[in-house]
Every structure is written in C-alpha cells, then in structure tokens.
Amino acid sequence: MKRFEFIALIAALLALNALTIDIMLPALPDIAASLGLSNANDAQLVISSYLFGVGISLLFFRPIADRFGRRAPLYFGFVVYILTSLLAIIAPSFAMLLLLRFVQGLGTAAFRVVAMAVVRDSYQGRAMAEIMSLTYMVFMIVPILAPGVGQVILLVGSWQMIFLFVAMTGIITGIWAYFRLPETLDKANQRPLTIKSIFDGFKIVLSNRLASLYAISTMFLFGALLGMLNSSQQIFVDVYDFDIYFPLVFAGLAFVMAVASYLNSRMVGHFGMRRMAHFAIIIITISGFVMLIFSLFGKVPFLVFYILMAIYLFMFSWASANMNSLAMQPLGKVAGTAASAFGFIQTIGGATIGMIIGRMFNQTIMPLAIGFSLVGIACLLLVLIAEKGKLFGSDEE
C-alpha cells in the first residue's frame, strides 16, 4: 500500500467513530418525537450509550489485537458495527435503540485500537509522528462535515436513513480494509491473552502520580466537550434558532479545533508540551467563568457565546493533545498497555460527565457554563497537584 492510501485508510478507520457520533446530532429531535420521548434531553443518550460501549471495549481490544493480530478484531468490529446500524433502523423502542448503540460502540472501539496498532507496527519514531499528524489532519474533516451530512439525509428521509448511511459507510470501509490492509503484527510479537494483561494498564497508570493526574484531568476536559456535544443541537436550534443551519455553525467550531490541532503540531516543538497545556487550561477556566457571568444576566448574545465557545474548543485541542502526551511520557515502555487504561478512564469518565452536563439543559446555556467552570477548576487543581504547584515548567522535568 502506498503512503497516501495508508494514511487515508487509517484516517477512515478513526473517522468512523466521529461520524457515528456527529452525524446523529441533527436527528436527535426526530428520534425523540418518533419514539415518544417525554423529555427531549433523553435523546442525548443516543450519544452517551454509544460512548459507554466504546470506553468499555477499549479496555479489551488492545490485548485481543496483541494476541490474535490486527485483522481479525478489526473485521469483528465491522460486523458488529454494520449489524447494529441495520438493526437500529427497525428498533421498536428507545430502550432497544440505546442497547444497539451501546453494542455498536463495543464494536467501533476496534477501529481506533487497530488503526493505532497498525501505525505503530508499520512506522517508528519521527516517521510515525508524521504519519499520525497527517492522519489526524484528514480525520478532522469528518466532524466538520458529519452533521451537515445528517441534516441533508433528514431533508430527504427519516432518521432511520442515517443509520442506513452509517451501515453503508461501514461496508465500504470494511471492504477496503479487507482487500488492502495486511496483517502487520509479527507472530513473534504476539502476546498471551490473560485477565492480568487486560488490567495491567490500570496498575501502571494509577501507580504513576503524574500519569494518573494528567489522565484524570483530560477526562474532565473530555467530559466538558461531550457536554457541549450532547446539548449542541438544542443550544443552536432551541436557544439560538438556527434550525437547518445548525450543521454550519457546528462546522465552524469543528474547523476551529482542526486549526488548533495543526497549530499545536507546529508550535509544541518550540514552546513545549507543558507550557502549551498549562496556558490552555488557564484560558479554558477563564472562558468558562466568563460564559457563566454572561449567563447570569439572561440570554447570552449568540456572537458572545460563539466566540467563547470557539476559544474554549481551540484551547481544548491544545490542552488535550499535550496533556495526553505528558501522561504517556513516563510510561514509554508500556505505552500500548497504558493507552487502553487511558482510553477507558477518559471515555467512560468523560461520557458520564458529558451526560450529566447535557441532561441539565434547560433552554439556556447556564448548565453548560456551570459545567465548563467546574471542569476548568477541577482540571487546574489536578494539574497543580501533578506539578507540585509549579506551572509552565520544561518538558524534561
């Protein structure tokens, strides 16, 4: 496989997760109406249930992929992903839809685990970092476009057609991977699958003060992001009356995050991970409190909210990328095992926090502003403890 196709395929595998979340956002009101939900906030569980499935499965797919190779777990994930998408079309109740989304998340985790493992198998050092940077640049297109795709589908069909589109995307990507992605795990590097191997990551992460505190801090940040994601459709449509233009304003925020990720890759070598992460956390905390202060005086003007949201998401991209790197830095020799624990902690914890923030939506941005403020304080305190009260240190410390 040529380098360009390799990058495109890895990006496609990673993008399926973002697609499966973001394409659903415009459909949440239709799902609530179709399945007879009395509380519109309940529709947000379509996102949360999926993320809980992903988080739990991240813990297990890594050791499975190290035991059975990369291809077999990947194809298992595709089968689960496609079948649950098709069954969701005929889901008779909201409870069944949530169950299918949870199981879908269990399968989708294989895409992320296998994609990262294949890159590590195929490239080393600077070449691996370059491949991952290019992959994420391609991947970031999906959050920008996905809500728009969902909105277009709703203009010509029902919310069930979105699941059909998701299933077809899974089928096309699965066929591509089947014929073009080779097995990259050398048999000599296969590891036995044991219960111990699954939970070793927790022991490794939790026994390292710096790694565990940065991992938990990132979990809080991810939770705030998911809180915004869960309630984004209601905020932009119910509060600010954007209706069918919701995907456009959402795309603007996703574009801000893509730009931030690119700038981070260009600037981190000069300023260092710690300085950029700590600066971002401080700005995140300030922007959360500014949003809260504005919300105390009634409806926040859209432009003010949008600018504060853009600042928050820009800084989230800087903070999360560098904090994850700082958490992994002391665990280099066991990075793969630790990554599974990180993924579990951040996804399950973040999904829980995001669900709480989202379900507090009350036709104002007040719950989101409170959530952002509290998360900012928690994150800043945890980082201060991790760094023993000293911010903006060098990455060698």
List the helices and strands and how they pair.
Elements (H helix, E strand, L loop, with lengths): L2 H20 L5 H7 L10 H24 L2 H19 L4 H29 L2 H15 L1 H16 L3 H21 L14 H12 L2 H31 L6 H26 L1 H23 L6 H27 L6 H25 L6 H21 L11
Helix pairs in contact: 1-5, 1-6, 1-7, 1-8, 3-4, 3-5, 3-14, 4-5, 4-8, 7-11, 9-14, 10-13, 10-14, 10-15, 11-12, 11-13, 12-13, 12-15
Walk me through what this model shows.
The protein has helices spanning about 5-20, 30-35, 45-70, 70-90, 95-120, 125-140, 140-155, 160-180, 195-205, 210-240, 245-270, 275-295, 300-330, 335-360, 365-385. The chain is mostly helical. It folds into two domains: about 1-180, Growth Hormone, Chain: A (Up-down Bundle), CATH 1.20.1250.20; about 200-395, MFS general substrate transporter like domains (Growth Hormone, Chain: A, Up-down Bundle). The longest helix has about 30 residues, at about 210-240.
Summarize the structure.
The chain has 397 residues and is an all-alpha fold. 80% of the residues lie in helices and 0% in strands.
